[in-house]
Design goal:
The structure is a homodimer. Chain A is α+β, with helices and mostly antiparallel strands. In chain A, about 40% of the residues lie in helices and about 30% in strands. Chain A has two domains: about 55 residues, Arc Repressor Mutant, subunit A (Orthogonal Bundle); about 80 residues, Lrp/AsnC effector binding domain/regulation of amino acid metabolism (RAM) domain (Alpha-Beta Plaits, 2-Layer Sandwich). Chain A has a four-stranded antiparallel beta sheet. Chain B binds a DNA duplex through helix 2 and helix 3.
Chain lengths: ~170, ~170
DNA sequence: GCTGAAATCGCCTAACG
DNA sequence: CGTTAGGCGATTTCAGC
């Protein structure tokens, strides 16, 4: 299984940095039970190996003036690989689209979008997304309220799993 | 509008920390064009005002052994506020559920879930989610591949908007 | 009120055992 | 992986705009 190339200290490092990405290295070292220099070496290794894809401040979208969050389900006319890739590239170019995932089932993609207000989103929806080449159908759902928004993965589930298979 | 209580330097700070949450304060100060002490004070103020909700390392779920990502659309039997809140609380308690958003339209909630493998997710789906009180329907879609996953908000959209209204 | 400058303190990060 | 040590950043203090 992937993840077993990491020892318990590496996993603890990842869990701690997922919970607080701005923690100092000495604090991190203290928490994982080693001294600072090897801790920093591990962090660099984890970054270079791709386990850590970056560090980001989580900003409050609503407080910043992005009042609208929308999930959009998109169906395409052609599911040929070239057409799928072309649509994905468009999503990467649209700043209002924050996430784009290809799905199984009847709908082809789910998009998470954010916008300052409804009219901005509706302009994007009608003039860009629905109007884009190869787009067959778009169904949107407004987020009424957010109940949970945890970044990353549940490390405790991983630990339980590793303990069971040991 | 919210966001206009922030001056251009504050917005630049937020944008920079969203892009790189581990940037040192002196580097941040250099980028936004002020010296380090006032820059640090602004960051603390933004944190306390709730504009910054935290800092998180973005870990690679698949490389860590979480091979399965699923979006689940959940319909409830009762949409009374007490029942909505009860379901939201359940979602907060389930570690496999990373996000839970209440939606308008026919479906009540969308959940983003992550799991080490399909059987773990299916156990959760049948034994926990579908079996939970007040849950009327659950439709799940597996993520085949991810095309875009940008955290946060598009600051350039915000700046364009502010420039237009000035 | 704000910023910037200086000084102290603590952390980062090499090199070596 | 730990220890040491030198340089740099973080953070407080204080003065100036």
């Amino acid at each position: 299984m992937a993840g077993s190339r990491l020892d318990p200290i590496d996993r603890k490092i990842l869990a701690e940095l997922q919970a607080d990405g701005r923690m100092t290295n000495v604090e991190l070292a203290k928490r994982v039970g080693i001294s600072a220099p090897p801790c920093l070496r591990r962090v660099r290794t984890l970054e270079e190996a791709g386990y850590i894809r970056g560090y980001h401040a989580k900003v409050d979208a609503r407080e910043l003036g992005f009042e609208v969050q929308v999930f959009a389900m998109v169906g395409l006319q052609s599911q040929a690989e070239a057409d799928l890739s072309a649509f994905e590239q468009r999503c990467r170019d649209w700043p209002l689209v924050r996430e784009c995932h290809m799905l199984n089932g009847e709908v082809d993609f789910i998009l998470k979008c954010v916008a300052p207000d409804l009219s901005t989103f509706q302009s994007f929806l009608t003039e860009q997304l629905t109007a884009a080449e190869n787009v067959a159908s778009v169904k949107t759902s407004l987020v009424i309220r957010g109940a949970k928004d945890e970044p990353g993965v549940p490390f405790d589930v991983l630990e339980q799993r590793l303990a069971r298979s040991a």
